[in-house]
From TrEMBL:
It catalyses: DNA(n) + a 2'-deoxyribonucleoside 5'-triphosphate = DNA(n+1) + diphosphate. The lineage of its organism: Eukaryota, Fungi, Dikarya, Basidiomycota, Pucciniomycotina. GO terms for molecular function: DNA-directed DNA polymerase activity; endonuclease activity; hydrolase activity; metal ion binding; RNA binding; RNA-directed DNA polymerase activity. This is Integrase catalytic domain-containing protein. InterPro entries: DNA/RNA_pol_sf (IPR043502), Integrase_cat-core (IPR001584), Retrotran_Ty1/copia-like (IPR039537), RNaseH-like_sf (IPR012337), RNaseH_sf (IPR036397), RVT_2 (IPR013103), SH3_retrovirus (IPR057670). It comes from the Eukaryota. Keywords: DNA integration, DNA recombination, DNA-directed DNA polymerase, Endonuclease, Hydrolase, Magnesium, Metal-binding, Multifunctional enzyme, Nuclease, Nucleotidyltransferase, RNA-binding, RNA-directed DNA polymerase, Transferase, Transposition. GO terms for cellular component: nucleus. Residues 28-197 form the Integrase catalytic domain. One of its GO terms (biological process) is DNA integration. Coiled coil: none annotated.
Length: 926
């Protein structure tokens, strides 16, 4: 319009807003000079159908220098932290170098407290991509497509069902790590990763899913005229050996052997089955590559990451087991699918360098009756340990249209029937795509109705630069004492980890009831023949008053009524907020105060109403256990204030089954269902029972005999599950759990085997529990106190105690903080620790209007003398004065002290691993 006038420097806001476009991306990532300098990682999924072990995601890690790939099939995206931390330790140990830089997207699986702390402590630079910019991580993004292309080829070529994509993923990675790439001057990734490079060649490679005939040793043949071979399906190569991994459908096991004959041109699955499963592999829609993806070299084209499974580590783990634990249990599916396949997912052989296995939860267990193992396996044979548990939702992975008769029809074992439970979704999308979508949708509708009823949120126009908190859906299935699903629940939760202190929240502390308080309440009510009822507050946190001004984004599934940019303002507490538990406690405490109750000085979650008809309420978040007489008055009052669910007589609370015998005035607590689930989680449901929690007189080496952090169970999770069982109903395994809990930082195979030994003990004693009530003398609190002097490798002693008041209400096992110089000192320190507990219990019983005294039983005369008399000599003068306060309790008459022989010292079970007969005697006494 104006000749000679240059408008290139004129940028108005309207032009910038209407003509904006994405900036160009760099053409290619520079090749790092050494391994582990730059690590690329990403998550691919969800993939449908899930593997037979329930995995739906693939976590990929790629070394930028060597293009070496590592993949980890996962059930949840949150498992990334666990796999990466183990990969880091393996890679740094194998290469002698340290991870310096990590490139990933900006997803929540990578941007969380766990990863941030790991990167900070290790000095790793984390380079997250910008939102909606996968082009900044092209190597990992391209690896997704390349990996899935290889998986499709392997599955389709020999018509292997889609449920085997986990094994195909491992095989694809094994091949790609040995495929020359142009950016490495046609070297292979594995040759750049390790030195010296492994031998090359293709003679050991065979088609995935082809038929193989395994030689059957004489020891395994049924008769002289029986077959000498077994038809199996080839699943992959074992790194470091010329061994192969094959699937035997008749036994349902994965075998590793070198005695074989391959038929490369013959597909196994069509040969074995006359009707193939029709399930197809459904890949996530977000795997499409953007048109402006940067140019990537051939190294990236073949990028994918392999499921790092170290078969050697697993085999070594098996060698540390007892003879009967060599065989791996692979339960058959509940419905016969042709061919009959084990529902347990098995991790394929992978390169030895890829040590970061998917989190295994199925451990070695004794032989099954269906396939007896009377003799050790011949040389060159071994069973591959299973790395995953059975899928929780068989129906979601297997269509009923595919159920046909197999060539070898047989009844499935009943032991697997209990494992068929619903698969709880982890997100809104998963809930809507699951087989129970209608049930989850109803739960979501109920949640929205509850939010509206309690006036928790209101729509407001979003202000400029308004700070919003995001939300997520949390789904859960509520079960009864038998494990049956009674209700599907959906909770709208705020992502409270993004809250800012002193802006979005202030105080956050909220107490929860002590289990010792609950046990005392049950024993007291049982002895006095009081009623015990249970109630549940519906949407408890929504009753809490909110003082801060908080805005949240529109949650998924919610349709706003206002036009324009809308957000939600919270007018009351919502799940996920850091202050929500505290706000709820303050609200329910105010109700109890107005109703004439007072909180106990010993437990702020225990409310007491005395005078007239007594009433006691134990509060655990939103669960109420109510004991007393004429409870209907209290129930009517609380129902008029909160929306309640009346569960009637107490049957099941906090994972414990409650059995009451009114004629005997007793109440029993047990966790048989919890133990069953614990055994299933770790694949030990068919193990051989043990008579003691630990091997008698054994000690666990803190360093352990075997590899540190082996490719085995999730040790921290295992000990945590065991500790909850101890705190509720199983004092007989308290010492074993305490020993295992001291080895969390560097567990070895020895420690994992010790955990499995505890599971074997639980297998034979899963019906045990504690019985409360039926007390003849209710005037004393009786306690057994013991110590095992210098029993640990660091010379520190173990203390143990068990307290009886209307039954066994408390127990404790702990290592003393300092080294005791004598058995008298060790026992005296244990007495002092016990007196702290008995002082608390005296305070609690005082709230019931009871005037009780404590009776201490100890098997050390020197400690009793030191308690009763202020002895001062060179062997005791170093004991801190703070420990002598127990002498004040004794002198005040609050506790009595008596000697009991070691034979009758019940607390001995809390301080050491006892012989079978002694352990059983003390267990019965408890």
């Amino acid at each position: 319009m104006l000749p000679g006038f240059n408008f290139s420097g004129v940028d108005c806001n309207s032009c910038l807003r209407s003509k904006g476009h994405r900036l160009p991306f760099p053409g290619q990532f520079p090749l790092p000079s050494n391994v582990l300098e730059v690590i690329h990682m990403d998550v691919c999924g969800p993939i449908n159908p899930a593997t037979r072990g329930g995995n739906r995601y693939i976590f990929q890690i790629i070394d930028g220098h060597s293009r070496m790939r590592f993949t980890f099939p996962m059930k949840l995206k949150s498992d990334c932290y666990h796999h990466f931390s183990r990969f880091q330790k393996m890679a740094e140990n194998q290469t002698g170098r340290r991870v310096k830089t990590v490139v990933s997207d900006n997803g929540g699986e990578f941007i969380n407290k766990g990863f941030l702390k790991l990167f900070e402590e290790a000095g790793i630079i984390h380079l997250p991509t910008a939102p909606y910019t996968p082009q900044q991580n092209p190597i990992a993004e391209r690896a997704n497509r390349t990996l899935l292309e290889r998986i499709r080829v392997l599955l389709l070529d020999y018509q292997v069902p889609a449920e085997w994509w986990g094994e195909a993923c491992s095989m694809a990675t094994y091949l790609l790590n040995r495929t020359p790439v142009s950016s490495l001057n046609f070297q292979t990734p594995i040759s750049k990763w390790v030195a010296p490079s492994p031998p090359t060649g293709v003679d050991h490679l065979h088609p995935f899913g082809c038929t193989a005939v395994i030689h059957l040793p004489k020891e395994r043949r049924s008769s002289k005229v029986g077959p000498t071979g077994i038809l199996c399906m080839f699943l992959g190569n074992v790194e470091g050996h010329r061994n192969f991994c094959l699937y035997n459908p008749e036994s349902g096991r994965i075998l590793i052997t070198h005695d074989f004959t391959f038929k490369d041109g013959e597909a196994f699955w069509p040969l074995y089955s006359s009707s193939l499963p029709s399930s197809s592999l459904s890949l996530p829609s977000n795997l499409s590559l953007p048109a402006d993806l940067p140019v990537v070299s051939m190294a990236e084209v073949s990028e994918d990451v392999t499921s790092p499974g170290v078969v050697e580590a697993l085999c070594n783990e098996g060698e540390n087991e007892s003879t009967e634990a060599i065989e791996v249990c692979l339960p058959q599916p509940v419905v016969e699918v042709c061919p009959p396949q084990p529902v347990v997912e098995v991790c394929l052989p992978q390169p030895v360098v890829e040590v970061c296995l998917p989190q295994p939860v199925v451990e070695m267990c004794p032989p099954q009756p269906s396939v007896p193992l009377e003799k050790p396996l011949p040389k060159g044979w071994t069973y591959k340990p299973v790395a995953e548990t059975a899928p929780k939702d068989v129906t979601s992975a297997i269509s009923m249209d595919n159920v046909v008769s197999g060539r070898r029809s047989r009844a499935p074992p009943n032991r697997f029937a209990g494992a068929v439970v619903g698969l709880v979704p982890c997100s809104f999308g998963e809930a809507m795509a699951s087989s129970k979508s209608s049930a989850w949708l109803n739960a979501i509708v109920k949640e929205f109705a509850s939010l509206e009823q309690h006036q928790v949120v209101k729509e407001v126009s979003r202000g400029k630069n308004q700070r919003l908190l995001d939300t997520t859906w949390v789904f859960r299935e509520k079960t009864d004492a038998e494990g049956n699903v009674t209700e599907e629940k959906a909770r709208l939760c705020v992502k409270g980890f993004r809250q800012i202190e002193d802006v979005d929240f202030h105080e956050t502390f909220a107490p929860t009831g002590w289990l010792a308080t609950l046990r005392f309440l049950l024993g007291y009510c049982a002895s006095n023949n009081f009623d015990i009822q249970q109630m549940d507050v519906k949407t408890a946190f929504l009753h809490g008053d909110l003082d801060e001004e908080i805005f949240i984004q529109i949650p998924k599934g919610y349709t706003p009524t206002m036009k324009g940019e809308v957000c939600l303002k919270l007018t009351k507490s919502l799940y996920g907020l850091k202050q929500s538990p505290r706000n709820w406690y303050l609200r329910i405490k105010r109700f109890f105060t107005e109703a004439g109750f007072r909180p106990s000085a010993a437990d702020p979650c225990f409310f007491i109403k005395t005078g007239g008809e007594p009433c006691f309420v134990f509060l655990h978040v939103d669960d109420l256990v109510i004991g007393g007489q004429n409870l209907h008055k209290f129930k009517e009052k609380i129902i008029s204030t909160f929306e309640m669910k009346d569960l009637g007589e107490l049957k099941y609370v906090l994972g414990m089954k409650v059995t009451r015998n009114r004629s005997m005035r007793t109440i029993s607590l047990s966790q048989e269902l919890y133990v069953d689930n614990l055994l299933k989680d770790f694949g030990m449901q068919d193990c051989k029972p043990a008579s003691t929690p630990l091997v008698p007189s054994s000690r666990l080496d803190p360093i352990g005999n075997g590899d540190v952090n082996p490719a085995g169970i999730n040790y921290r999770r295992a000990v945590g599950l065991l500790s909850y069982l101890v705190s509720c109903t199983r004092p007989d395994i308290a010492f074993a759990a305490s020993c295992l809990a001291q080895l969390l930082n560097a567990p070895s195979i020895e420690h994992e085997n010790a955990f499995k030994h505890v599971l074997r003990y639980l297998k034979g004693t899963k019906g045990l529990g504690i019985t409360l009530g039926n007390v003849t003398d209710n005037s004393l609190i009786v306690a057994f106190c013991d110590a095992d002097w210098g029993s640990n490798d660091d010379s520190r002693s173990f203390s143990g105690s068990c307290v009886f008041c209307y039954g066994l209400v408390g127990w404790k096992t702990s290592k003393q903080e300092v080294v005791a110089l004598s058995s008298t000192e060790a026992e005296y320190r244990s007495i002092s620790s016990f007196c702290q507990d008995i002082s608390w219990l005296l305070e609690l019983t005082n709230d019931f209007g009871l005037t009780l005294k404590g009776k201490l039983l100890c098997d050390n005369q020197g400690a009793l003398s030191l308690l009763k008399n202020p002895l001062y000599q060179h062997r005791t003068r170093h004991i801190k004065l703070q420990l002598h306060w127990c002498r004040e309790l004794f002198n005040a008459g609050n506790i009595q002290a008596e000697y009991v022989s070691t034979t009758n010292m019940m607390a001995d079970i809390m301080t050491k691993s006892l012989p079978c007969q002694t352990h059983a005697t003390h267990r019965v006494s408890l």
